[in-house]
Amino acid sequence: MSSSSRMEETSLLCLLSRLTVSPSSSQFFEYDFVSLSCEEDDSSAGWTLRRNTSKQQRTQCGDVWGRGSGSSCNITVFPLDSGVYWCESREGPISNMVNLTVTGGSVILQSPVLPVMEGDDVTLLCKTKTTPSNLPAAFYKDGSLIRKQPTGHMTIQHVSRSDEGLYKCDISGHGESPSSWITVTDKPTTTPPPTTTTIPTTPDLTADSSLQLAFRIVLHLVVLCPYIISTLLMVSLYQCRAKGNDISDSTKPTLLDQGLDNERDDVITDVTTEYHF
C-alpha cells in the first residue's frame, strides 16, 4: 500500500483537529495558491501545520515554507512542496494527514483530498493548465483503463471498498497527470435503540396473600359443607320413603281378593242359617 493510503488511514485516528485544503484537491499545478487550515475542536491546544517532503522533515509553516497565521497556512506551491501535511498540537496529538502533489506538467487529476465515505458519489476531473477543462480524457485505476469521457469528468456512483486505489488521467496531446490514491471509508452504521417489550408476569404470592387465600378456601368450605350435608340427607330420606311406599303397597289386598272373601262369608252365613232350621 502506498504512503498516501497509510496517510489516509491515519486520518481515521483524528479526534481533536482536521486538516482541510482549499481548493479541495490532492493535485496542483506549479504556482497554484493553496490554503491549509486546522479545524480545531480545542483552540487552546496550539495547533500548528507541519509537513514532510523529500527534502525536509517535520518542518513548521512559517519557518522555511508558507506564511502562517495561527492554525492556518498559505503557500504558493512548487514541485518541491509535494509531500505529507498535518496539524500538530503542543500536547502531541496530530490530525489527519494529507498527501499533496505539485506538478510542473500540464495535466492534473482533481480528486478528493480526504477519504470518501462508502456509498457516496465521487467525481474526478482531468484538467489542463492552459486549456478548457472539458477536453476528452481517459481515466485509469491501478494502471488499467476504466473509461474514456468526452468531457473530462468521470463520476463513480455509490463507491465501495473495491473502488479504492491509485487513479490518474490522460488527455490526448497534453499529457498524463500524476497518480493519486483515493481511500474509501466504511459508512458509519446507526444502530437503532433496542426496543424492550414488557411481558406481564404473575406477581409472586407473599405470606399475607397466601394467608388470605387459605382463609377464603376455609370460608367457602364452611359455607358449602352444611348445604352439601343437608342435600345428601334429603336425598337419603327421599329414597327411604320411596322404598317404604313400595312395601306398603305390596301388602294391601287386591279387589279380587276382597270379592272372594265376601262370597265366602255369604256361603258360610247361608249354611249356618239352614242348620238352625
Automatic annotation (TrEMBL):
Lineage top rank: taxon: Eukaryota
Location of the region described as Disordered in the Swiss-Prot/TrEMBL record: 180-199
GO BP, sorted A to Z: cell surface receptor signaling pathway; immune response
SMART domains found in the cross-reference section: IG
MF terms (GO), sorted A to Z: transmembrane signaling receptor activity
Keyword tags: Disulfide bond, Membrane, Signal, Transmembrane, Transmembrane helix
Keyword Transmembrane: yes
Gene3D superfamilies: Immunoglobulins
Transmembrane segments: 217-238
One GO cellular component term noted in the UniProt record for this chain: external side of plasma membrane
PROSITE patterns with a match to the protein in the record: IG_LIKE (PS50835)
Start and end residues of each Ig-like domain: 93-185
PANTHER family (alphabetical): FC RECEPTOR-LIKE PROTEIN 4, IMMUNOGLOBULIN FC RECEPTOR
Annotated protein name in UniProt: Ig-like domain-containing protein
Organism for this UniProt entry: Oreochromis aureus
